[in-house]
Design goal:
Layout lengths: L1 H10 L4 H25 L5 H21 L4
Amino acid sequence: MTSIGIAVKTASDKSTGHIAEMLIQGTNMGIIEINKALNSAKEVSGSLKDETKELLSKEQKYLDRLKAYL
C-alpha cells in the first residue's frame, strides 16, 4: 500500500521539492509518534530512553537536511 501511495503522490509532481516535502511529512509523523511513546512509557530503562533520544536527534538532523530541498 505504501508503494501505491507514493506512486500516486509522485505521479503528477516528481520534483525534488515535492519529494522532500513528502519525506518531511513522514519524518515529522515519526518524530511525533516516538515522542508520544516516550512520554507515555512509565517504566523505561535509562539506556532505552537515551537511545530513543539519540534516535530523535538523528531524525531531527535528517529533517533539517531535507529542508534545503524545498
